[in-house]
Amino acid sequence: GIGGYDRIMGPNGQAQYAARDLADGCHILLRHYDHSYVMPGERFPRRAATNDAIDRDVCDSPHGHVGASTFATVGEVFDPKTNPGRKRPFDIRKVMRSATDQDHDVLERWYGMRDAETAVVWDAHIGGFPVCLIGLESQPLSRLGFVPADGPATWTAGTLFPMSSKKVARAINAASSNRPVVVLANLSGFDGSPESLRQLQLEYGAEIGRAVVNFKGPMVFLVISRYHGGAFVVFSNKLNPSLEVSALEHTYASVIGGAPAAAVVFAGSVRKRTLSDERMMTLQQELDRAVGVERVALRDRLTLQQELDRAVGVERVALRDRLSKMKKVVHSEKLREVAEEFDSVHSVHRALDVGSVERIIPASTLRPYLVDAIERGIQREQSRE
Q: In 3D, which of 106, 93, 108, 111 has the Cα closest to residue 6?
């Protein structure tokens, strides 16, 4: 009645779940215990019985039209034919649900946390094992309330913003010494807008790294789309030996993505390619030729310098306008060209070669791989005690 969850504790992340009344609160608590309760003398929550096949192919799970994304099945999200370059938006919750046990309900934590919508945290079961499942929203989301001029107009896909970084770090810390963490990652990095930096983006991003370093238990980080930028650092397997980093086929993994690499690192190369493009050179020659011919003809017929300058100026402006428009088109093409070249070299296979990724698996084996990785992690953790 006083707006405790709706206005205060939900939006700022203090309240993990919303309860309609006291009975609903008790029900949520018992559901939370299903995922997190550890019997005295035991290390992890007990494995639950499940009738969902361990080797079920998640590609057959439905996706449908959700927000900005439209795929018939989850398999189309991972298919390079229907989603080339993994650039089309998709609903991360559909992918997360396809991997979890279908006969166990999931419980979402911090659902109402304001400005943290790009991070999704579930209490779930995979192969009967209780886990903290984390996903990163992979479609653009509208912002609520006032939007500062120096910040992003929307929450972009695969990006961590200050509050979503805080949410992810909190989720990892909460699961430490309790149950495994599984991350289904489509992460292009952290937002670097002035607003995000002002809202402690660097601090909250570092909190994820510290949470990974301090985490006690198995952690599985599976790249389902992209793995770039700061995410490549804070979720590095160098930070914690219990962190297993793997990737699906046809994904992308590098310190910097192809598009930002083309725009920043290889800007000079893009500029040279643009200026040497045949269309640009043809227009430039036409501009030079037209201005020169016009100047000679006018000098033969006129003696007034002002008329000469005026006529040459009109022709020059028209051609320069065409040249400017063509330059934008060609520059965009060359950016994409350089980005694709960079991605082809700095592929997920190169990340595998240098040890940043431990294995690459087909999408059809996503669920059995996760179950196996969780089980191996639990056995490894128990053998250390």
A: 111
Beta bridge partners, 346, equal none
Considering 17-21, 175-179, 323-327, the range whose residues carry the highest mean pLDDT is: 175-179
Long-range contacts made by residues 142-149, C-beta under 8 angstroms, separation at least 24? Answer: 143/115, 144/114, 144/115, 145/114, 148/195
Give me 343's structure tokens. 């991605």
Q: Are 186 and 160 in contact (CB under 8 A)?
A: no
CA 338 to CA 335: how far, in whole Å?
5
Distances in whole angstroms, Cα of residue 161 to Cα of each of 22, 195, 198: 34, 10, 11
Q: Identify the residue with better confidence: 85 or 215.
A: 215
Closest of 348, 294, 356, 346 to residue 319, by C-alpha: 294
Whole-prediction pTM: 0.78
User: Is the pLDDT assigned to residue 302 strictly greater than 50?
Assistant: no
On the question of pLDDT at 227 being above 60, the answer is yes
Length of the chain: 385
16-30, 219-233, 261-275, 293-307: which is most confident: 16-30
Residues 6+ apart with CB under 8 A from 281: 275
Strand 141-142 and strand 159-160: the pairing is unpaired
- Amino acid (one-letter) located at 165: S
pLDDT band at 18 (very low <50, low <70, confident <90, very high): confident
> Would you say 266 and 338 are in contact if contact means Cβ atoms under 8 Å apart?
yes
CA torsion sign, 324 to 329 to 332 to 333?
A: negative
Flag whether pLDDT at 271 surpasses 50. Answer: yes
Name the band, by pLDDT with cuts 50, 70 and 90, for residue 60: very high
Question: How far is Cα 27 from Cα 223, in angstroms, rounded to an integer?
Answer: 34
What does the block give as tokens for 1?
């009645």
